[in-house]
Amino acid sequence: MHIYYNPGNHTFHLCNRDISYIMTVLPNGQMGQLYFGRRIHHKDDFSYLLETRLRPMSASVFDDSSLFSMEHIRQEYGLYGTTDFRHPAVEILQENGSRISDFVYREHEIADGKPPLDGLPATYTESPQEAKTLLLHLEDPLTHIRLTLLYTIFAWGGILTRSARLTNHGAHSVQLTRAMSLCLDLPDCDWEWLQFSGAWSRERYPKLRPLEQGITAVDSLRGHSSHHQNPFLVLKRHTADETQGEVIGCSLVYSGNFLAQAQVDTYDTTRILLGIHPAGFSWKLEPGASFQTPEAVMVHSVCGLGGMSRTFHTLYRERLARGFWRDRERPILINNWEATYFDFTQDRLLDIAKAAKDCGVELFVLDDGWFGKRDNERRGLGDWTPNPQRLAQGIAGLAERITALGLRFGLWFEPEMVNRDSDLFRAHPDWVIETPGRHSSHGRFQYVLDFSRAEVVDHIYDRMAKLLREADISYIKWDMNRSITECYSGALPADRQGEVFHRYILGVYSLYERLTAAFPHILFESCASGGGRFDPGLLYYAPQTWTSDDSDAVERLKIQYGTSFCYPVSSMGSHVSVVPNHQVNRITPLHTRANVAYFGTFGYELDPGSLTDEEKCAVKEQIAFMKQYRRLIQFGDFYRLASPFGRNTAAWMCVSGDRRTAVIGWYRILNGTNLPFERIRLQGLDPELPYEIWEDNTRRGGIYYGDELMHAGLITSDASAGQPLPGERPGCDFDSRIFVLQA
Ligand code: GLA
């Protein structure tokens, strides 16, 4: 990787083996974007890539020429109000009411490695050789506000990270009303836009549409990244697919309100903007103060969507997630929520734990209902002391019994919330986010604590830390079950109310930072009614996320498939639950529930005591299988083979780093009679290596070279209601198979 700078024409070229990113100082001093894409040769001069042509109706910058208009120039951090009419990257309301800025190049620094972003999650390096960072310092000569654009290029992969920092060196306070993390102007619009949308229990479905002149956007204004949209957008060439073609993915390392937008102008250039949602946002920047935007990560791939995803997976697994659990196989857990809901006693929990331990489970997780007077969803949130009626010896006592069984113990919290019927609310009614004089709306009968206030975060930290010190707790499920309404902080003045949403998320991050630092061995799993905050911001603190409250295997195929476009398998919480399924009432075979859940962190969300002996044996085998292959599945390379959207069969696979072992999951939604012959073309194998094919501990005759399996395919035809071959299971609805390849 290298960052070239040519002082003669002030051109910067950031490149590694895969990508080039080129920009230059423009004649008006602002920064222009020249190229982002596949690696190209370095030259001293790329000025021909700056096109300045006269176009009717354009406004011109220089008095003596009509050629130079920012309307036609691709920029690094677009500004509205002079000659560019597109949506800007930044907007600053100044003392005289003007919102125009003019950021011109002053100086730059090139540093090895990557600096951390104060108070914000971000990708990182472990040695200075892993990346180089360019800091471009620009300044507005009128307001003396300094804009620093940060660019980090990693030594490997088509990755470039971006963020912006604004510092007020002027004499007056200003209001920042927009500060995006990323602005990328591309020279054409021949792209399809791919977004990941949904709702509670059907999160992150891929949705594709062509870019057109005008605006294409997704966003969240809910105070969290949301079930509805994800802070992730992909541009793909029309001909690109899973295995080939040009793709750009842009992901925001942030968990609050966001905007991801593409604007195609009259000349078919495309401007991507990604960052904190400007709606409702403002930040008062007093003289001397700085504002740092969250980080955006851009990945460019010429190996299609699959190539892009694997780059994100490696980066987010190895250089975004942190801590003790980052590189460790994740414990196979049992969670009592769907087994008991609020209806449990200590004895019932211990019965579940014992039965789970007999099957090989490693971690018991006690979900909602253990604290305060929490016997339903209307009360107790905020009172993080164990309920003595349910747990006579408290959490410490229960944890001791669980660990004596040979299991680890994990606990559910919802730190950001409070019920009105709680001691915390009675003591501090002013700690809730609500607007004076307005009705306060609830979500699941709960209210949001004002995490923009340090004393609120301190209080919750003290409560949680006390429990974590007293009891042997190895895992925390950190839930967050409502969106923010009537957003207002009683602790901030009127001209800072636009800061509350962002300050709230900074408060969440600070609590995570303190807890993960003080209790480094605890595994954190984030959750927000399932996947309502499945974003890179939280992956920095919690290496895994409860992917969705929908635990049905068929629904999960879609959810995990969509989630995999950005997020690694190791980050996806996935459990086997009971049938009929509690969300969709569907009855799926036990083997299919496991065959889907293997492609994640794996666990159970049921009472093993309710299983038949035959099912218990199957569960034991499932757990043994996962223990054998989880390193490969959670830390190998993931390939999507067949999409569950609009089709009856789906497939995906994980390949070990040395490409000698692979696990393939194949799924058929509905059975049919006399179905066509079928094969799937595998990916990621070593074409030269001969592989054995194993299914249910039985080896298929013959050996198969990697190239055969990738080009001719793996045959998955079955009896489909005809005559099963000897040893073959008869087909059924919601069927699935796992194949293991061994070189
Ligand atoms: C949310 C979570 C569930 C469970 C419940 C408990 O809905 O997503 O997994 O923890 O809260 O109230």
Secondary structure layout:
Elements: E1 2-6, E2 11-15, E3 19-25, E4 31-38, E5 90-93, E6 104-112, E7 131-139, E8 145-154, E9 159-168, E10 174-186, E11 191-199, E12 202-210, E13 214-220, E14 232-237, E15 247-253, E16 258-264, E17 270-276, E18 283-285, E19 290-292, E20 295-301, H1 304-319, E21 333-335, H2 337-340, H3 346-359, E22 363-366, H4 394-404, E23 408-413, E24 417-419, H5 423-427, E25 446-448, H6 454-470, E26 475-478, H7 500-518, E27 523-526, H8 536-539, E28 544-546, H9 553-563, E29 572-573, E30 576-577, H10 590-597, E31 603-605, H11 613-635, E32 637-642, E33 649-655, E34 661-668, E35 679-680, E36 690-695, E37 698-699, E38 704-705, H12 706-711, E39 714-715, E40 735-742
Parallel strand pairs: 21-22, 21-31, 22-23, 23-26, 26-27, 27-28, 28-29, 30-31
Antiparallel strand pairs: 1-2, 2-3, 3-4, 5-10, 6-7, 7-8, 8-9, 9-19, 9-20, 10-17, 10-18, 11-12, 11-14, 13-16, 14-15, 15-20, 16-17, 24-25, 32-33, 33-34, 34-40, 35-39, 36-37, 36-38, 36-40
The structure holds alpha-D-galactopyranose (GLA).
Strand percentage:
25-35%
User: What would the principal axes of the Cα set say about the shape?
Assistant: globular
Number of helical regions? 12
The biggest beta sheet is recorded as: 10 strands, antiparallel
Query: What number is the mean pLDDT?
Result: 97
> How many E strands?
40
Which ions and ligands are bound to the chains? alpha-D-galactopyranose
Radius of gyration in whole Å, from Cα? 27 Å
Model regions low in confidence, pLDDT < 50 over at least 5 residues: none
- Class inferred from helices and paired strands: alpha+beta
Helical amount: 10-25%
